[in-house]
Every structure is written in C-alpha cells, then in structure tokens.
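[worker-b] picked up task from shared queue
[worker-b] task type: protein-ligand structure
[worker-b] ligand name resolved to 2-acetamido-2-deoxy-beta-D-glucopyranose; SMILES cross-checked against name lookup, match
[worker-b] sequence length check passed
[worker-b] input payload:
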Amino acid sequence: MFTSLSLLIVCSVAFTQANSNNKTVLPVPFTLYYESLCPYSERFILNQLVPTYDDKDFAGLLANMDLVPYGHVYDPDFSKYKYTCQHGVPECEGNKLHGCAIKYIEDKSTLLHYFSCLINITQSVPILSYPVNECKNIVPDDKMLQISKCYNSTEGWDLFNKHGEATKNFFGSNRFYVPYVSFNRTKNENISVIGRKNFKKALCIENGVKHTTCS
Ligand SMILES: *[C@@H]1O[C@H](CO)[C@@H](O)[C@H](O)[C@H]1NC(C)=O
Ligand SMILES: *[C@@H]1O[C@H](CO)[C@@H](O)[C@H](O)[C@H]1NC(C)=O
Ligand SMILES: *[C@@H]1O[C@H](CO)[C@@H](O)[C@H](O)[C@H]1NC(C)=O
Ligand SMILES: *[C@@H]1O[C@H](CO)[C@@H](O)[C@H](O)[C@H]1NC(C)=O
Ligand SMILES: *[C@@H]1O[C@H](CO)[C@@H](O)[C@H](O)[C@H]1NC(C)=O
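[worker-b] inference finished, payload out:
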C-alpha cells in the first residue's frame, strides 16, 4: 500500500519536473510493425496500445510513435503494385487503409480509436473484404475524404510500398513475427516480447519511468 503510493508520487514528480522546465522530453521512439488482419496484431492494438494511449499517465510516452502496417507480404512487386498478403486480399486492403489513415489523421487518439473500431469488426465476423466503409463517424469528414481519395488511388499503394520498404529495412531477410514492438528503432527480441504482453511495462523500462502499473 505504502510502496505503491510512493511510486505514484515519484512518477508524478517526474512528469511535473519535465513540464515545469517547459522542456519537451521526447520519449524513446516506439515503432509497431503489424498486419491489419493478424489476430495477434489486432489484439495488441485493441487490448494494449489503445488502452495505454487512453491512460493519461502513458499517452505522453507515445508521442514518438510510428505504426507500420505491412508484415508478411510474399513476392511484392512494388513497381506493379502487386502483392500477396499473409491473410489474403482483405489484409492488403486493410494495410492500405491503415497507411492512408496514419498519414491523414494527425490526432493519435482519433487514429487509434478508428483502428479499434475497425478491429472490433474484423475480429468478430469473418470478412471477405476489409470494412473500409465502416467507422467513418469517428473520423472528421475532411480527413475521411482525404483517406478515401488516398485509398482509391495509387497514393494508397505508394504508402503501402513505403511501409514495405520500412519493414524490409528493419528486418532484412530474417524471419520475423508481428506484432513486433520496437523501441529506439532497434531490434530487441526481449523487449518486444515484454511489450507484446505488457506494453506499459515496456514503456516504463525503455523510458526509465516508475509507475505502479509497471512494477
Ligand atoms: C512555460 O511556458 C509557458 C507558456 O509558454 C509560460 O507561460 C511559463 O511561464 C513557462 N514556465 C516555465 C517554468 O518556464
Ligand atoms: C465493439 O462492438 C460492440 C458491438 O458491436 C460494441 O458494443 C462495442 O462498443 C465495440 N467496441 C469498440 C471498441 O468499438
Ligand atoms: C473507394 O471507392 C469505392 C467505390 O467508389 C467506395 O465504395 C469506397 O468507399 C472508397 N474507399 C474508401 C476508403 O472510402
Ligand atoms: C537510443 O539509440 C541511441 C543511438 O543508437 C543511443 O545513443 C541511445 O542511448 C538509445 N536510447 C535508449 C533509451 O535506448
Ligand atoms: C535477451 O535476454 C537474454 C536472456 O536473458 C540475454 O542473454 C540477451 O543478452 C538479451 N538480449 C538483448 C538484446 O538484450
């Protein structure tokens, strides 16, 4: 009881200090490599990433976040926009939609809630195509218009390619799994495993932050 209380105090002091100096303390960069229809990726976003962002004690630690929707794509031909995604055509559509949303929705909270709404659908029903027309009410109309244009043009595939390059540059020709949680743009199996199970804990470790939920 006493211990957890004192940890909380230490934590809030740390945050206050950062603010009172008016310095933006940039958190360690966080990158998530994932696939739109991989059940483990879906669960990570829904059950770890979104609740962590919704926790005001942790949102700041995600200020330096990159989402990379791509994962396992077989024999991609970037120049011809030809791809075979691990979970089929709907996954390619989903990755493309996510890529456009990441580009056009600057507000991370809106972006993540848009994704959790989409995932709520793809998790619960077998889908023949990605639900690109759902959850539009979460996104401001002007952003949704940009996303639609992006999705229905080569811009969507160019972003898809960009995430493909990022994934390839990061993993090289090594085998990898998604979701892959990376900090500081480096590969570290240990922290990725911790992060997948207990994302808040990984954020605390990487940023040197103490918090009751991390102990
Ligand atoms: C922080 O910035 C705000 C607005 O720019 C200013 O009013 C405030 O005095 C600053 N605080 C410190 C501790 O520098
Ligand atoms: C998921 O869907 C159910 C029913 O369709 C709804 O009650 C729930 O609020 C949704 N959750 C999210 C995170 O959108
Ligand atoms: C792309 O165009 C189709 C057909 O016009 C439309 O149904 C769909 O809503 C558009 N995609 C998005 C993400 O808006
Ligand atoms: C992040 O990476 C940089 C450059 O490789 C290194 O100097 C720094 O110590 C790393 N920070 C953390 C928190 O891992
Ligand atoms: C991961 O953990 C293992 C076992 O604890 C350790 O031997 C290894 O050095 C760690 N790797 C990294 C990159 O921290």
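[worker-b] attaching auto-annotations
[worker-b] The first helix runs from residue 2 to 20.
[worker-b] releasing lock
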